[in-house]
Sequence to fold (177 residues):
Amino acid sequence: MNLSAETEEKVMFDDIASMLRTFEEKRENLMPILQEIQEKYRYLAPPALEMVAKRLGLSSCDVYGVATFYNQFRFNPPGKHQIKVCLGTACHVRGGDIILENFERKLEIQAGQTTPDREFSIDRVACVGCCALAPVAIVDDTVYGHMAPSKVEGVILGFEIEKERKEREKQDSESQE
Ligand code: FES
Fold:
């Protein structure tokens, strides 16, 4: 983890600690707390779940059990580029699961996970409302319709090239200073 990710986590945990102080020690506060953390930080870090358990006087198992029961929660920080692969019925019958597998293989992570450099995360999603384009993947705000396994490599490559370009620009502008 780089230093800025560590600093970001520290800020997040400090913020969660003060947020937790505003909730009474009642079990019925568990879902509102988890939702608030997820909404603000877009994931529930394991230490945050421990903090919630301690605040509410529950066991960590209880809190993990509730959090993992609902698929609205994620447990890894979302990547800079969020890949969502639709596995709704129309996409599933047109090979959405194969598209998902290809993204997973290419990035060497599973759905619900984030690459170690936090560049990409993959999630499976239900119907996103454009079944005519099935199978569909969404990366950030771009919808990729009629996806094919052979297009996966190109989608990732596009982001990697863009990242390299930005890094080169940054280095150029730093060397001119
Ligand atoms: S099932 Fe994938 S867009 Fe509807």
